[in-house]
């Protein structure tokens, strides 16, 4: 699983490590682990989102990247780490479950390759 889906697998593992550190009253170290999740997982996700925006493929991923950046600015590392896990999980596991074409067509129902939506009077 780690070889096929490294970002979600490592992010989930490090979240568990961070939780154990927090429970062990090592909150500063737990925050560093959360920051590592954001940096390690957030940079590739940010790069993928920028490439998609460059190709005019807009999605909810833009809001997730804004949330990651906002969590860094506000020092809310747990929130950012959870968003990294969520975004990486959707990107890596959704194509596996539904197939790459189905995942793309669900994200872009009215995209450039979708059939036109006919209104009233267009038979």
Helix content: over 70%
Number of strands: 0
Rounded Rg: 18 Å
- Number of structural domains: 1
Protein name: Heavy metal translocating P-type ATPase
Keywords: Membrane, Transmembrane, Transmembrane helix
Region (Disordered): 104-123
Transmembrane segments: 6-23, 30-50, 62-87
Short description:
By secondary structure, the protein is an all-alpha fold.
List the helices and strands and how they pair.
Elements: H1 6-23, H2 27-54, H3 61-73, H4 77-98, H5 100-107
Helix pairs in contact: 1-2, 1-4, 2-3, 2-4, 3-4, 4-5
Characterization of the model:
By secondary structure, the protein is mainly α. The protein is built from 5 helices and no strands. Helices cover 72% and strands 0% of the residues. Helix 1 runs antiparallel to helix 2. The radius of gyration is 18 Å and the shape is globular. This is Heavy metal translocating P-type ATPase. It comes from Dictyobacter kobayashii. Keywords: Membrane, Transmembrane, Transmembrane helix. The chain crosses the membrane at residues 6-23, 30-50, 62-87.
Primary descriptors:
123 residues, mainly alpha, globular, membrane, transmembrane
